[in-house]
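Sharing a chain and its predicted structure for anyone who wants a worked example. Both blocks are below, sequence first, tokens second.
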Amino acid sequence: QVQLAESGGGLVQAGGSLRLSCAASGRTVSIGAMGWFRQAPGKEREFVAAVNWRGGSTRYSDSMKARFTISRDIAKNTVYLQMNSLKPEDTAVYYCAAKTGGSLMTSSGIYDYWGQGTQVTVSS
């Protein structure tokens, strides 16, 4: 089993930056890829970015790749999401997810483990 814990969310003004962290614990050796998803009220859960755990390859949503950067620190079992030039439309609960397979899938249903989410609110 893998447990995920997000942190770093909060309130930020439009144009500002925020870095989210997700610490993994448990059977982390089983992690093949980790990703970030977000969900705004009344909307579908949306893929943000993913990273292959061992190789470090990344994949981004086209709408966010210019502003967001995903990275991971294997030694710390932690994945990060650096968010720059934030917009009010980025307001959502951001979830960390992990999957045993290493492929960087964009469908939330493919991921095996989920964190509780961290709220990001961007004011105009």
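Comments welcome. The first strand starts at residue 2 and ends at 7.
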